[in-house]
Structure formats: C-alpha cells, structure tokens
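In practice, a research group might receive sequence data for several interacting partners and want a quick structural hypothesis before committing to experiments. The following worked case mirrors that situation: the sequences arrive first, and a predicted assembly follows.
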Amino acid sequence: MQTWALFLDAYRELNARKLFWITLVLSGVVVAAFAAVGLNERGLTILWWQLELPLNTTVISEEVFYKSLFVNLGIGFWLAWLATILALVSTASVFPEMITSGSIDLLLSKPLGRWRLFLTKYATGLLFVTLQVAVFCTTSFLVIGWRGNAWEPAIFLGIPIVVVFYSYLFSICVLLGLITRSTIASLLLTLLIWVLVFAVHGTESGLLMARINADMNVESLERDLHRIDEFREAAEAEDRPLPAWIRGLDQEREAARTSRDRWRLAHRIAYGVKTAMPKTSETIALLERWMISLAELPDREGEEEPPATGALLSQPSQRVDPQELNMRLAERIRARSVWWVLGTSLAFEAVVLALACWIFTRRDY
Amino acid sequence: MTADNGQYAIDLHDVKKVFRGRVHALRGIEMQVHGGEIFGLLGPNGAGKSTLVKIMMTVVRPTAVSGTMLGTPLGHKRTLARIGYLPEHHRLPPYLTGRQVLEFYAALARVPRRLRKTRAEELIDLVGLRDWAKTKVSSYSKGMQQRIGLAQALMNDPELIILDEPTDGVDPVGRRDIRDVLIRLRNEGKTVFLNSHLLSELEMVCDRVAILVQGRVVQQGTLDELTAESRRYEIVIEGSPPEWVGDELRVEKGEGRCTLIRKGADPEPMQALLDRLRSEQRTILSMRPVRETLEDLFMRAITDPATGALLKPGSAPPPRRGRRGAN
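A structural hypothesis for the assembly, expressed as tokens:
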C-alpha cells in the first residue's frame, strides 16, 4: 500500500514535469527517424528521397541495419546520452526535495521505516527512465518489425539495460544530493563523475589497444626471428659472430618485449581502476553484443590472411595489421563476461547506495 | 477509542538531545500527557520544542530517551499509524490536489483504500475546503495549507494528534475553526498535543501545559495548578482605604479610589470583608477573582529570578568542561 502510494506519487510528479513530456516527444522523433530511413541496393532512402552511397549496401541486411540503428543511435546515442542527461536533470531533485524541512517530517512521521522509504524513493527515481525506455523500445520494436521485417524481442532487453545503466548514475546523484542537499550541485557533480568514468573507460580502451598492438609487434618479431633460425644456427656452428642485422633484430625484440610489459602493466592498472567503477559504456554495449553477433557485421566473413610479400622479414610498418588489431580488440572486449560488466558495476552501485542509505537513516532532519 | 485507558498518552523521561556533540537542545525532559486532554507546550524560540516533537515523531534521533507514546516505546514505527502529525512549516507536494494530498499521506499511514476516500471527503468538509479539493495545493494560501495539513493529520483517525504551530499564518476565523476542531477531537476522547507561540490560543483550549526553557521543562500542570500561587480577589472601593486593614490585605491607592487585594482562591473570607465595608457605608465599585494569565506565567518562567532579566533565547550553553556528546 505504502510502496504503491509512493510510486503513484512519483508518477504524478513526473506527469507534472514538462521535461518528462519533452523527452517522450523527442523519443518519438528518434523512432520516427528510424521509420523514415530505408536501405536498398543503391544506398539509403529518407522518406521518398534516394541517397546514393558509394558503398555496397547489399552486404548488410535490412534487419542488421535497423538493429544497428536501434543499438547505436537509439540506445547508444539517444538513450545513453541525451535522454540520460534529461533524466538526471529531471530526477536529481527527488532526494534534495524530499529531505527539505517540512517535507521529510511528513514522510518520516508515518509508519514506514527509513530504509524502506529510502529504497522505495530510489526506485521511484528510476521510474522516469523506465517509462521513457519502455515506450522507446516498444515503438522501436514495431518500427524494426515493420521496416526491417525482423520482429526482434531482444529489443526489450534495452529496458533493463538502460535502467541498470541509469541506476549507476542515479545512485551517485542520490548520494551527492543527500550530502549537499542541493539539486544543482548533485547534478553537476554527477555529470562530472560520469565524465570521469568515461575518461577511465577511454584510457583503459586506449591502453588495451596499445597492449594488443605491443603483443602483435612482439609476435611479429618472434615470427621473423623464427624464420632466420637457420642463419643463427649456421653462424653458431661455424663459431662466427652473428651478423649485425640478426643482433639488431634480437635487440629490437627485447625492446618490444620491454615495451609490451610496460603497456601490460599500465593496462592492468587502468583495468583495476575500471573494475572498481561503474561500466556505463560496456553495460550499454551488452545490448549490441546480445542483438548483433560479430559474424552479422559486414567485413567479418571471409577475411583472409594478408597477402604474402615474399620477403623474409616483415617491414616494421607491416608488423601490426590494423584490421586484425581491431578484430582482436573487439574480441577482447566482447570476451569480458557479463558478470564482470554488470556484477562489478552493481557492486559499485550497492556500495554507493549503502552509504547514501546510511547517511539518510542516521541524519536528523 | 480513547488514548488513555488509565495510561498516559505520552510519558517521557530523561529525553536528551545533543547536536554535533556540543549543542544541548534537550537536557532531560520529563513530561506526561494524559489521554483525552489538550496539552500545550510553550517555550521561547530555540527552547527545544520542535526538537522534542520531532523526536516523538522519529524525525530526529534522540541522544537518550526513555518513555512511551500510546503505551509503546518512543520511536516504535507501527505506533505512528495511530498518531496524526502536522509539522511546523510543512511542505506538501505542490503537484497534488488537496484530495490527493489527503489520500497520499493516508496511504503512507496505512489507511485502507476504502476508508481513505470517505475520510478525505469528511475532512475536506471539516476544514472547509470543499470548493478547493480538486485544486493543486501549490495555489493554496498559507491558511488553506494549514487547513489541509490539519486534515492530513486526521486522515488515520488518530488517537493522538501532535500539532506544531497549527494556527501559524491562519486568519482569526480560521484560528477559531481550528480551535473548534481541537475541542471536538478532545470531546471524542482523543489526545491533542499542541506546540504554539500563541499563548492566548493555548489558554483558550489547553487543559494542561508545560513550559520548556533552555531544553528543560520548568513548569507543568493545569492552568489552575500553575497559577494557584497568583490567585487573588480584588475589591475596588471609593475613597481612602479603611484604617482596620490588616496584614492579610494589600492596598493599592488610586485617584479617589483604592483597591484591596487578598491572596487565595477561597471566596469565603471575602464575604465578611464585603459585609464590613457595607456596614461602613462604603461604595463598592467592583469585586473580581484574579489570576495570572498564561502570558504572565510564561514571562515568569523565562525570567531569571536572580537578576530579573529574561533568559537568553536558544538552548542552554554547553558546559564549560563537558565531555563531547556525553549523555
């Protein structure tokens, strides 16, 4: 009864906020944009205009095209960025307003425990995003079914994914709202922390790429050295000094190994920091992982080994194949378990919420 | 159902509150409120009145407490379903209408849905907001906010109603209406705990009062009990005072008249005095029983008897060498 009353109250509050309706209308515009875009053998169509593209559009099916649009633009850009900022602006005031003198008195004086009040109010704060994303996913489901001929129920996974993603940020916002008692301060600090989380993500991704690059460099050098084993053995058998170019390669390999070890260490540190933080980007990327397999994406099938140049040794510039680097990077990121992505992020959220709840229950109002 | 049944509705012992280890807001409150009475809590600003009320309503956590409300230990959450509360400067959700406010807080107070509807209608009529029930409370005047706040406090048909400055910002007509509601509640057997600055208001409705000064209850009892010392009879006669006036009578001389003052509440000794004055053909202009007003009582309570100066507002100063947060 009390939980229902708090949710009904939260809904009425949302209903009274213009920003809720503005966001909903904008969501409708984004979905309408999906519906307006089409794909044919000549390129893209937007409503009745044909947009010629110098690309082979037949390698991607309409289904994958619409799913990509939904995942990358709908969820990745609209819901996980712009709508999230609008949602934070709209819900950052939930706790600062609740703990205002005169307002909190009326709530705490009811037969309702402080823990329960806190957690229920927190859950009602997620109502904004839940309603927005539910409407967005449902309309996207219909549009992708109609335009892409793919009735994909996995689209509805977007609802829990986006709500969980938003809950990381909202928990931070709630904690800061309780500490500062200010809507604007908690909102700005939350956005700052979000930027920080994104910076850590970017740093870790960059270091992972550098690490894979260093790995591939060492692998390439070792392959080269393996190919010239007979020269080395011959030199050793005749007890003559190794040619300078072989010694140069050895030194280059040692330098590459040292560099690789440094990148590995730097990446491990960044990975450790990232593990303790909420993984906003990876959480959203889970949807792509579940909806679109690597094989479905263009240029993944039929990839061949790079053509042999006939040379004994590879040129330094050829040691790392950019395509392979990207593929390895994508595989490494996709290989990270869902439990690592969600589990560690939810653990972070649980710690933040526990701290906020402790402050809320211990404070005098 | 009455709150008393032979027990105190509120029975507080040794309630202490120290803020941040140094501000002693409450320094061991002892207070008893009988069931079925209107009890008034008075005190200067910063005396700790609102802190005490907030401790009773679990809004503020006490440093030390012992006592009961409606027979259960202070802080027992479920008991709050039997208590109605109107905080000072309350803020209602501005996006709700008057009726929605009542139903929302009633739901939090665990009032069944069926009862919520009927109670809301009854109370909207009681506080005179029938024409405003469907209007958002953000457009209510201060007085209307107080009225809907009072109705909110009564939604759960409480046995004990705690009101913090209920007539704050209310016009005289509204104040009279609220007073009538309080008297009606007492007549229904409910206990009303009133925290107010308006001494005349309290004097009109309260059965008992307590005066809180610097975090301590300095006076507590019925108005008759608290003013017994000051009760007296005053007789105003024309001319100079009689020569036979003894020690039991005090005389105040005025222009062409004088006032004879006799301490005590017993009217019997006054009869012989009147007879003697009449036998001397003196003109008696008036005779009336007099006692301290609540304001007099209050002013006496907040005056330092040693210096005659008013006690400083606010909580008591910290002890010079007190331990931090010791209680």
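Before designing any experiment, note the following. Residues 183-227 of chain A form the longest helix (45 residues). The two ends of chain A are 25 Å apart (CA to CA).
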